[in-house]
Design brief:
Largest sheet of chain A: none
Radius of gyration of chain A: 19 Å
Helix content of chain A: over 70%
Number of strands of chain A: 0
Oligomer: homodimer
Strand content of chain A: under 5%
Shape of chain A: elongated
Number of domains of chain A: 2
Distance between the termini of chain A: 58 Å
Chain lengths: 184, 184
DNA sequence: CGACTTTTTGAGTATACACTCCATTTTGGA
DNA sequence: TCCAAAATGGAGTGTATACTCAAAAAGTCG
């Protein structure tokens, strides 16, 4: 299935449309009709590229889950502030993906493969936060570091949800306050 | 439209079924067919009692939004620990309603009447938390109290989401840790 | 150009959904 | 016991959805 250029452009038009629709109205808004209309494409073209609607949505959701993580190459060297700043930047600058990230986390059925993937990434992020905390001596035992990291990430996720429901909420300020509370 | 006993029982069977389905699989799982099957009722009976499926769901969602608040009569006297304990109890003991609460918060379209209702309640809860913090001198200005309350509630909501995705997560322990961090 | 492959089109299919209709049964007060 | 109001069963309606297919168009490369 060597591809022509036009097909590759169509693929990215479809993915972009899907991303927008997911960000705007969640899974319900991302109907095949809506995706195709926004991408300027017919249903047949969609299915020439993707085997199913779900496949396209998974791809966008996967992108979002990846994007929430800061540069993996830096893992093990960054400060807690760096990690939180990366999360803030993700939410503020890539707000579409951030909304997708939060939408899929809750909307998809439990015990789903997406949920498992989501949790796997979450656990990895918790460990990264916990290690930064240990490095900065904010905490004495590894167990306490994990707990503290879960609470901080919980706060960041909760504040991000708050921001998704009400865009006038100052996410950056509250996220910074949350991390400052860990520092004592 | 004076009601007969049997109709009132049918109504509560339908509401119970709706509550369960919403808790288990969110809005998507609460189809008319699923609700009627679980309630042991036919579609015609459903529409004899509720004008629409949405109406029944709204009623359950409203219940959940109410239930997250601790006793309003105590407002202005309870400690921060009381407030957090009430939230923990809600999540742990009324887990079905708690899941509904979190599901509807995210699933419903933005700018929806449910979203507004949800936000109104949230703001009121933030104020209640902030006042408790002021009373306990955890904070000096009202502005800081509001910020701190937003962060604490964000953490509680975020941890509750974490628990919804993974029931083996120890919500109580992490929630307690979150509030203990405010105390310094 | 000409042969071949990929892409696009757009009408068409099957299905699941919320909701309706109304004949029939059940209820509960007089 | 009677009867009007309320509740029920269950087939039926319209609509939106994901997805298919065969023919036509457009891209690629010698």
């Amino acid at each position: 299935m060597a591809r022509y250029q036009v097909g590759i452009r169509t693929e990215s038009k479809i993915l972009e449309a899907t991303r927008q629709l997911l960000a705007e109205g969640g899974l319900d808004a991302a109907t095949l009709k809506a995706i195709c209309e926004r991408a300027g494409v017919q249903a047949g073209s969609f299915y020439n590229i993707f085997p199913s609607k779900e496949q396209a949505i998974m791809q966008v959701a996967g992108e979002a889950i990846q994007a929430v993580d800061p540069d993996p190459d830096l893992s093990g060297t960054e400060s807690l502030n760096d990690l939180v700043d990366a999360y803030i930047r993700f939410v503020v600058e890539q707000s579409d993906l951030a909304r997708v990230y939060l939408q899929v986390a809750v909307t998809v059925g439990n015990d789903d493969s997406v949920t498992r993937r989501f949790l796997r990434h979450h656990v990895r992020r918790v460990e990264r936060f916990a290690q930064a905390m240990l490095r900065e001596s904010l905490v004495s035992t590894e167990g306490e570091a994990i707990t503290k990291a879960e609470v901080l990430l919980g706060a960041l996720d909760g504040l991000a949800f708050r921001w998704v429901l009400d865009r006038s909420f100052d996410f950056r300020k509250h996220a910074r306050y949350a991390v400052s509370q860990c520092g004592r």
